[in-house]
Write a structure and sequence with these properties.
This protein has 846 residues and is an alpha+beta fold. The chain folds into four domains: 168 residues, no CATH class; 108 residues, 2-Layer Sandwich (Phosphorylase Kinase, domain 1); 206 residues, no CATH class; 193 residues, no CATH class. The protein is built from 19 helices and 27 strands. Strand 18 and strand 19 form a beta hairpin. Helix 1 runs parallel beside helix 3. The longest helix is centred in the first third of the chain and has 40 residues. The N and C termini lie far apart (161 Å). This is Protein kinase domain-containing protein. InterPro entries: Adaptor_Cbl_N_dom_sf, Kinase-like_dom_sf, MLKL-like_MCAfunc.
């Protein structure tokens, strides 16, 4: 029986049912993306494409592959973003919107716009192609079969290009954001990091055990840019422009409320949005109002403002007069400083700090803050004016009030912002100081520093506050300020006519009264006299105020008695009251120093200087040790140092003398062969208590002045003398003889003598020349010579080799003494105290 052959038709592709099932599955996946706004439009286009596939008769598989490739982009995106749509970054959502939206935002770059427009145009073109393919007749499909297949291939290529373009645009956005984040963080070059074992996270509180030497004014600063939970301290050695020293101690555990690290922080737009997006009300949670820029009317600018107050302007806001501070400059830096100031000022409530009333709502082109109206005046100009117009006592009171205002504001800042002493010292040193309309000091905020900084100083908080208050006295180091005071003083109480002893013949009763001066063009000597008087007033002010301010070991607050005195406004403060306060605290140690003739003055001498001259014209009237020998104790100090060249360097060593009977002082000096040695001696004699000297002068100045016919404020009392003398000794001994095996030709005859030279330069025969150590030779042995001095004025210093001070006979020659000595010119400086005319104002007032 023959087999029956059954022929069946087989298709190489999927059946219609298979394609329909796959199309329905893809449509279900795409439908789930319609509910999310960022992908709803693109998903709708793809659903239209899939629906059109049902009507296509030819090239169905190729069209299905094209639609599946188009859908894969959105399906993959939907799976990646599942559960992340609500907290997705704004930049990513913007890119997705642009991928499917109809409108392209103008803020996007042209490149990104072109990419997104290409993807949208590609999806729309595929949809139109599917609709045309479903409507064409079979005869046309047969004729245009090749063109349809080419179009499908072209659309597949366009989808691939669109996918790659979208990926490239996303990578560019990521790289751009990463670079912005890095640019805001601090760039610190670290050469070496040494771990410090056994150090706790709180090692920064208190004195650091790693500072080997404390020097006044030395500060080691550090910028911490690592995470705050780092569990150790480290010492970083490197160089950076932001550091004041190469050795820096880093504390990664510090959390300063005023300055925060920029690493691991949100980007600036996020910070501003979080800061302003706390609520939609016109007032924030602290009760401060957010102002729109249209609610503020600018008035007269404050042209004299400096530092933090620079650029402030008077303004009207809501019918109230305020002061506005606008933050110009680069936008990122201005926004950061604006947010930092607002966050800081919202926590500060003190009369000596800016009082914030409101701030901009974030829509202003230039951010600003509104403060209570303040008329700022430079603090140095304010003190200079006080010196011109006020008495010495009133000027001292002004500086004391400045210190109290600064201290009160600084301690409030420390409490409100939880700062340690080191951070508070940073605040004090970087703040702006101005004087308001009520004559009170107002502190402007310091500029923010990136990172978390720690400064190590060899002085404490009290010293920082005192130095800051006393800096107002530095204006007298300015020649223009002294000249201004001089011109003013020509018409004030210091220009009464004087006699030949420098005493005032008459004094005006009013401290601001004008005295006529007959000099149309004052002479040089007259101007010098006025400069001297102005300088004396400034010196009296600085010395008196510093004696009333707290010492380094004291609490920063003023003494209660001084604080109470500053609160009394009924009567003007007298200079005697301030001096007595200082003397009662044993703090009046102020004295002034001047150059004086050698041997003319001694401690305890009192007298006067005629006509405001120098100590060259000093007229001695007596000595307090002779009048009251039991009232004072003195101290004599003798120190010295020697200097000589050693191995090409200057070698300085201290020299301690010994005293022989008769007041002879011996100085043993080791001298190397052929060496020059300089010896400097300092003889200091002083009263042990300058405070006691001030008390004596206040008690006895009137009686002493009356006996000698001078005014008591012209009386000068010398409290210290310093005599400096320089000596030299030179060794002229011949060089040592050469050892066996060494050549004689190059041994000491380098100057004018015959000398044979080796053709090989520095050969062993030539090596042991004079001044060098040859082979088989030890180091040169110094010889001890003795310098003898004495405090007696008629004593003449001399050199000898006898430790008991026996002088060498000048006419006797010796083979073991080849030294020559010389003496330099001695100089003498004296320290003295002198009362001011205001100490005796009651005797000369009408």
């Amino acid at each position: 029986m023959s087999l029956k052959v059954i022929k069946t038709r087989s298709t190489g592709g999927k059946s219609f049912l298979d394609l329909a099932a796959l199309t329905a599955k893809i449509a279900a996946d795409v439908t789930s993306l319609v509910q999310f706004p960022p992908t709803s439009a693109a998903a709708s286009i793809l659903l239209t494409i899939l629906e059109t596939l049902q009507s296509i008769k030819s090239n169905r598989e190729d069209c299905f592959g094209l639609a599946r490739r188009a859908a894969r982009l959105l399906i993959d995106l939907g799976r990646r973003m599942d559960g992340k749509w609500d907290n997705a970054p704004p930049a990513l959502l913007a890119n997705i919107y642009e991928f499917e939206r109809y409108d392209i935002d103008a803020h996007l770059s042209p490149f990104v716009q072109a990419v997104h427009e290409g993807i949208r145009r590609t999806l729309t073109s595929i949809r139109e192609f599917m609709l045309q393919a479903a409507q064409v007749k079979w005869i046309d499909r047969l004729i245009s079969k090749s063109s349809i297949e080419a179009a499908i291939i072209e659309y597949k290529q366009q989808l691939e290009e669109a996918s790659h373009s979208f990926q490239i645009a996303s990578l560019i956005e990521i790289q751009y954001n990463i670079w912005n984040l890095r640019s805001t963080s601090s760039n610190v070059r670290i050469a070496e990091i040494v771990q410090m074992p056994g150090t706790s996270d709180k090692g920064l509180s208190g004195a650091s055990p790693y500072v080997a030497e404390e020097i006044l004014g030395l500060s080691l600063e550090e910028e911490s840019s690592l995470p705050a939970n780092a569990p150790h301290l480290s010492i970083a050695q490197g160089k950076s422009e932001d550091f004041t020293a190469d050795v820096v101690i880093r504390d990664h555990g510090d959390t300063s409320p005023i300055i925060k690290s920029s690493l691991n922080q949100p980007t600036l737009p996020d910070e501003v949005e979080a800061f302003l997006g706390q609520d939609s009300e016109t007032h924030d949670e602290y009760g401060f109002r957010r102002y729109h820029q249209s609610e503020v009317i600018l008035r007269k600018p404050n042209k004299k403002a400096q530092g933090w107050f620079a650029g402030t302007t008077h303004a009207d806001a809501g019918g109230r007069q305020m002061t506005i501070k606008r933050y110009d400059g680069p936008k990122r830096e201005a926004l950061r400083q604006w947010m930092n100031d607002v966050k800081t000022l919202r926590n500060l409530y003190h009369e000596n700090l800016p009082q914030i009333m409101g701030y901009s709502d974030g829509k202003a082109s230039v951010p600003f803050i509104l403060m209570a109206k303040v008329s700022s005046q430079d603090i140095n100009d304010y003190v200079l004016k006080a010196l011109k117009t006020q008495t010495l006592a009133s000027s001292a009171r002004t500086v004391l009030k400045i210190y109290r205002d600064i201290t009160s504001a600084a301690l409030h800042v420390q409490q409100q912002l939880s700062l340690d002493n080191s951070q508070l010292q940073n605040f004090i040193e970087d703040a702006t100081y101005t004087v308001g309309s009520e004559k009170d000091v107002i502190l402007g905020l310091p500029p923010p520093k990136p990172g978390s900084w720690h400064t190590y100083r060899s002085y404490n908080l009290t010293e920082s506050l005192v130095d800051r208050a006393m800096k107002v006295g530095e204006i007298l180091d300015n020649d223009e300020a002294v000249l201004s005071l001089t011109h003013y003083s020509i018409s004030t109480q210091y220009l009464a006519n004087m006699d030949d002893k420098g005493s005032f013949i008459s004094r005006p009763s009013d401290s601001t009264a004008t005295v006529r001066v007959c000099h149309a063009y004052p002479s040089t000597s007259f101007i010098n006299l006025i400069v001297s008087l102005v300088t004396k007033k400034a010196q009296q002010l600085q010395g008196l105020v510093r004696s009333l301010l707290p010492k380094a070991s004291d609490d920063p607050s003023l003494h209660p008695s001084i604080d109470d005195l500053l609160d009394e406004d009924e009567e003007p403060t007298s200079i005697s009251v301030l001096r007595n306060l200082s003397l009662s605290q044993k703090a009046h140690g102020q004295q002034w120093m001047s150059r004086a003739p050698v041997g003319k003055n001694g401690i305890g001498d009192f007298g006067y200087i005629p006509g405001g001259g120098t100590f060259e014209e000093f007229e001695k009237l007596g000595n307090v040790f002779e009048l009251e020998p039991a009232s004072f104790s003195s101290m004599l100090e003798l120190t010295g140092s020697q200097i000589q060249w050693k191995n090409g360097f200057t070698d300085r060593q201290a020299v301690n003398p010994y005293v022989l009977p008769g007041g002879l002082e011996g100085w043993p000096i080791p001298v190397l062969p052929r060496a020059d040695v300089s010896v400097d001696t300092v003889r200091r004699a002083c009263m042990e208590s300058v405070n006691d000297a001030w008390q004596y002068l206040l008690r006895n100045a009137r009686s002493i002045a009356d006996r000698h016919g001078i005014k008591p404020y012209n009386l000068v009392l010398i409290t210290q003398t310093i005599l400096q003398q320089s000596y030299k000794v030179k060794d002229f001994n011949p060089p040592p003889l050469p050892l066996p095996g060494q050549g004689f030709q190059n041994h000491g005859f380098n100057n004018g003598g015959f000398q044979s030279r080796s053709p090989f330069g520095n050969s062993p025969q030539n090596a042991p020349s004079f001044g060098r150590i040859g082979f088989n030779q030890g180091p040169p042995i110094p010889q001890i010579v003795y310098l003898f001095t004495s405090a007696k004025p008629d004593h003449e210093a001399y050199w000898t080799d006898d430790p008991m001070g026996k002088p060498r006979p000048p006419a006797v020659r010796s083979t073991n003494w080849h030294y020559s000595g010389s003496s330099g010119w001695p100089t003498t400086d004296v320290s003295y105290i002198q009362l001011d005319a205001e100490d005796f104002a009651d005797e000369y007032s009408d």
